[in-house]
TrEMBL record:
Membrane topology reported for the UniProt record: Multi-pass membrane protein
Name this polypeptide is given: Major facilitator superfamily (MFS) profile domain-containing protein
Main location: membrane
Locations listed in the record: Membrane
UniProtKB keywords: Membrane, Transmembrane, Transmembrane helix
Organism: Rotaria socialis
Cellular component GO terms held in the UniProt record: membrane
InterPro entries cross-referenced by the UniProt entry: MFS_Na/Anion_cotransporter, MFS_trans_sf
Amino acid sequence: MTKSKISTTYAVSELKSAPLVCSHRLLLAILACFGFLLCYAQRNGFSVSIVCMVDPDADNTTTHADDSVAIQRNIPVSCHSHTIAKSRSPSQVLFWPKGTRGVILGSFYWGYALTQVVSSVIVNKMGPQRFLALVIFISSLSTLMIPILSKFHPSGVVVLRVIAGAAQ
């Protein structure tokens, strides 16, 4: 018995190339680009906006647990020249000291670091497009809830930042 080689030849006109302009691949690349841009803006935008949310005099006075000793720090007024007290109402100003702000800003990366392995398992089950849409929605929703919960207690903001970090 002899083995026969099957060879097929294609004419150049038979090969069709996918269009670049209206392809699904390009659409997914553009949507992923905007999704990642939104995630990076949410991650870094709160670091900028917390400056305007917090009263600049919250760092000048430190009180101890028994409220008996107050230490005045020598922070020059020129450092806070960018904040205008007349442009904000008292309900918009938060009195979070520097330590609280550090915990809030760092809480994003707690959720980000803790869910790396779990998210890789979930993305294999859901698929990349649905997973990306879901995590951007969860991250955006938790970022939009920050101004509402920031009026009550800083721990609510910490929880929202951990959720946003876990989603991203």
